[in-house]
């Protein structure tokens, strides 16, 4: 679920402007999973552009407060969402923690880094949602520590059906600043892509694991 249409279009616009999202239907990227993809998203680039990171920070923070009230803590998912999560926490004057994919194999063997108490309320911040597995892994770690997860907010989602199913199964509300449909709409409106490229990009989104560029 996106915050609202205006936010979704604006967010897509700024992500395209700074090449945090790149669309390349003719020369697709290869993801770590091995999938061929006409889109690549690296929202960490947002941190290098102060006006844009401020827009993302403030929009996300204001929505969190409106949707959930102030939680006790903001949690970022390592590593991509540590930066933006910390900025959101600072804007809301809240403590910040982050969650590793797995517990460390040395030292205190933490998976959750930072101070949080059992029973506190947390909103999880993520930068990008693909299948949702890594994001929900962080939620699982928080729940196992007896933390009350109010929901998750993210900058962008590819909008895969499998992600929606995974979040629904775990009972976690996910809301994003923008999504794939609004990205394509914005890209077409600004002539970033052609109608033919739009068709290719839409085809990929329906079956990304099997898609191959022609």
TrEMBL record:
Signal sequence coordinates: none
Catalytic reactions on record: orotidine 5'-phosphate + diphosphate = orotate + 5-phospho-alpha-D-ribose 1-diphosphate
Keyword annotations of the record: Glycosyltransferase, Magnesium, Membrane, Pyrimidine biosynthesis, Transferase, Transmembrane, Transmembrane helix
One Pfam family per UniProt: Pribosyltran
Family designation: Belongs to the purine/pyrimidine phosphoribosyltransferase family. PyrE subfamily.
Subunit structure: Homodimer.
Protein's recorded name: Orotate phosphoribosyltransferase
Source organism of the structure: Algibacter mikhailovii
Name of the gene encoding the protein in the UniProt record: pyrE
């Amino acid at each position: 679920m996106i915050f609202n249409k205006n936010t979704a279009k604006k967010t897509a616009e700024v992500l395209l402007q700074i090449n945090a999202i790149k669309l390349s239907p003719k020369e697709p990227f290869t993801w770590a999973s091995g999938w061929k993809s006409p889109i690549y998203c690296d929202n960490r680039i947002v941190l290098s552009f102060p006006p844009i990171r401020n827009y993302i920070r403030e929009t996300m923070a204001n929505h969190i407060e409106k949707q959930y009230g102030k939680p006790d803590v903001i949690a970022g998912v390592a590593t991509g969402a540590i930066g933006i999560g910390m900025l959101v926490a600072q804007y809301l004057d809240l403590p910040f923690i982050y969650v590793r994919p797995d517990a460390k194999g040395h030292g205190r063997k933490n998976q959750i880094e930072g101070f949080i108490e059992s029973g506190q309320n947390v909103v999880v911040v993520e930068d990008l949602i693909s299948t949702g597995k890594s994001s929900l892994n962080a939620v699982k770690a928080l729940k196992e520590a007896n933390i009350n997860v109010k929901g998750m907010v993210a900058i962008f989602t590819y909008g895969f059906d499998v992600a929606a199913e995974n979040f629904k199964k775990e009972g976690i509300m996910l809301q994003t600043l923008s999504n794939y449909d609004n990205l394509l709409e914005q890209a077409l409106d600004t002539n970033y892509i052609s109608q033919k490229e739009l068709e290719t990009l839409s085809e990929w989104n329906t079956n990304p694991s099997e898609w191959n560029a022609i």
